[in-house]
């Protein structure tokens, strides 16, 4: 009798190779996440050398946060994110369209891509320290403006709400627009050249080509960019922390939600910090779901819309 050949299964090796990831994720991510949610229902803080708790208090931490300045700090975070994100996405779309347009015949594209992406490699703390030095009252910017005779006295950029928020928004824009540009360029380059050739034959101009072909076809990447930017905006910490020395000045108008969370962690108030973390998770989930619904196209070819229209016409005809 012929011996049956043993079948070799390679599936188990794949499971073995990915097992370390799940072990590390469980230990360093899942367990701390569960602890954060658990501590949010407890009174747990340090008062001097005395440690209070953990004592179960239910929803008291969540109610206390709603009565605090959390809403004001949430508004600050939204404003700072908008100041940085709006120019970021606009400039990134323009640059991506230019660099992928064969008709412009731009030379040395690789060099420009590297230059655009370089600010993304600089640490946010280094960026914030650089801007703090440049725009201080005795910094180079004020010195240049005074030597040119444009101002008579130094401008306190970080002493005004507009100046501080503008600097934070400018830094966030400079750090991230290169990354967004590269992603959008990859998305546009993934569009079939035949589509652009067909639109040129139909007589589309540059604006029609951009709004009716490019934007709809890169919608998934735009959704990804917006979602990651929202999450990053809610986690905004290092730039305003260093630029305002952790105070959120002037008048705490640059205090973000993560800076507020960091203050609770510094005071060892783990219950309030856990509750605020849960709030941030819920806000992130809601905003990302809204963005996904707004940008997700369930009818790319228009067949569903055409079917619904035909059904409405049929109902009208029967009436």
Structural write-up:
Keywords: Cell membrane, Membrane, Transmembrane, Transmembrane helix, Transport. InterPro entries: ABC_transporter_permease, MetI-like, MetI-like_sf. It holds the Pfam family BPD_transp_1. It is a multi-pass membrane protein. Belongs to the binding-protein-dependent transport system permease family. The protein is mostly helical and 319 residues long. It is 69% helix and 4% strand. It has a single domain (52-295), classed as Orthogonal Bundle (MetI-like fold). The radius of gyration is 27 Å and the shape is globular. The protein has a two-stranded antiparallel ribbon with strand order 1-2. β1 and β2 form a beta hairpin. The N and C termini lie far apart (77 Å). α4 packs antiparallel against α7 and α10 runs antiparallel to α13 (270-295). It is built from 14 helices and 2 strands. The protein has helices spanning 11-39, 60-67, 70-100, 109-117, 124-134, 140-147, 161-189, 193-201, 206-217, 219-234, 238-243, 257-266, 270-295, 303-318; strands at residues 42-47, 50-56.
The CATH superfamily is known as: MetI-like
The percent range for strand residues is under 5%
Strands across the major sheet, in which order? 1-2
- What would you report as the Rg, rounded to the nearest angstrom? 27 Å
Instruction: Summarize the biggest pleated sheet.
Output: 2 strands, antiparallel
Order of helices and strands: HEEHHHHHHHHHHHHH
Number of helices: 14
CATH fold assignment: MetI-like fold
Q: Strand tally, please?
A: 2
Instruction: Give the proportion of residues in helices.
Output: 55-70%
CATH class: Mainly Alpha
| Morphology call | globular
Number of domains: 1
Would you identify the regions where 5 or more consecutive residues have pLDDT less than 50?
A: none
What is the name of the CATH architecture? Orthogonal Bundle
Q: Mean pLDDT, nearest integer?
A: 85
End-to-end separation? 77 Å
